[in-house]
Specification:
The chain is of the alpha/beta class. Helix content is 31%, strand content 27%.
Length: 256
Amino acid sequence: MTLSPDNALEVRDLTMAYRDKPVLWDIDLTVPKGILMAIVGPNGAGKTTLIKAILSLHKPAAGQVRIFGKAYERQRRLVGYVPQRGSVDWDFPTSVLDVVMMGRYGSLGWLKRPGRSDRQLAMEALEKVAMDRFAPRQISQLSGGQQQRVFLARALVQQADLYFMDEPFQGVDAKTERAIIDILKELRSTGKTVVAVHHDLQTVPEYFDWVTLLNVRCIASGPVSDVFTEKNLRTAYGGRVAFKSQSAASDTTAEV
C-alpha cells in the first residue's frame, strides 16, 4: 500500500467479521491532512467498528492502516479519541479535572505524574469547552452535554494531530453542538484532522469538508460537494432518507 506522510489516514483492504459475518468489507480510505470528515451510514453499517479497527481496539481479519504514513502503534501519541458517551462508565468516582488530565498520560507515560504545566493545559482545555468551573465536580453529576464537553476537553489536551470522534453531537443541545463544531473548525484551522461518526445528514454540508458513506462497504469517500449526492445516499441507505440538495440548481428536499 502507499505509505504517504502527506495523508493523515490511509486504510487499505480492511475487513472485519464477527462470527463469520462481515461487518466491514474491503475498506479503502484516504484522508488528507487538515480536513473535517464525517462518516455516515445506516445503523449497523460499521461506523464505530471502523474507528475501533483503525485504533487497534478491534483486530481486523485483513487489511492495513497507516497514520501519517506509519503504523498506528508508532503514531499513537499523534491521535486523539472521543468515544461514544454511552460506552463510558460515568459512575466511576473521579472529577472532571481528573478525566481531562488522563489525556496527558500519552505524552507523559504511565510512570510519570502530571505536573503543574499539565494541570494548566487541562484547565485551558476545560475553559475552551466552557467547563472550567466544573473542574472539581464528579463526572456522574454532569448532564449528557456536559459530559460530552469534558471528553472533548480530554481529547484537546492530548494536543493530537488526528482526532477520531464517535457521535460527538449525540445527546447534546443545540448550543453545545454549535460550541463543539466551532472547536472542530478551530482545530482544522491549525492544520489538525478530524474524523467523526455523524448521523444528521442535514448538517453534513455545513459542518464537514469531506464525507465517507459507509454500509459495510465504502460506498463513496471524498469532498462533500462530490460525494454527498442523492445517488450515493440511496446506495448507502437503501431506502427513504430526507436529503436537502446542496446544488446551485436545486434546493429542494428529496427522498432517497
